[in-house]
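Continuing the series of single-chain predictions for the mutant panel. This is the parent chain; the variants come on the following pages.
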Amino acid sequence: MKLLVAFALLWSIAQLPPKEGVIASTKDPKADFSTFTTYSWVQGQPAADRVAHNAVIAGIEAELAALGLQKVDKGQGSVTVRYFSVMRTDVDLETLDKMEKEGKPPQTRNLGRLVIVMRDRAEKRVWAVDTVQPVSGDATTRAEDIRRLVTRMFEKYPQRTK
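Parent structure:
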């Protein structure tokens, strides 16, 4: 029973997002990244905002092209790529009591989680990168902010040439 509880705890911890601002990356140590020359898209969890979705796709495709990977039709690539995106609004608990006493709404922060996953032809995950970042309310800069974030995430790509 203790082993089952320990396993459940370990599994739940492994599912936690990285701390805000951290970019976490995992790779399959047995994967030969030099053999990955083509990729195709697979459905993940796209951003609800169309501008954000397009920025994520454009950013990932630009980074993969810079690594020398070519986009091909679904099912034809040496790897598949997908991304998962979710937004959340956090309440600032430090100021909650003060704001409530003043009859004001609590202060909040918008945070976005972006996960990019690459799998080989056998559907084995070979690389994943995950981050939670503040999201600007300024829609005019959001696409460029996302593009810069994707670039920072790809700095964690294994065997990246400088």
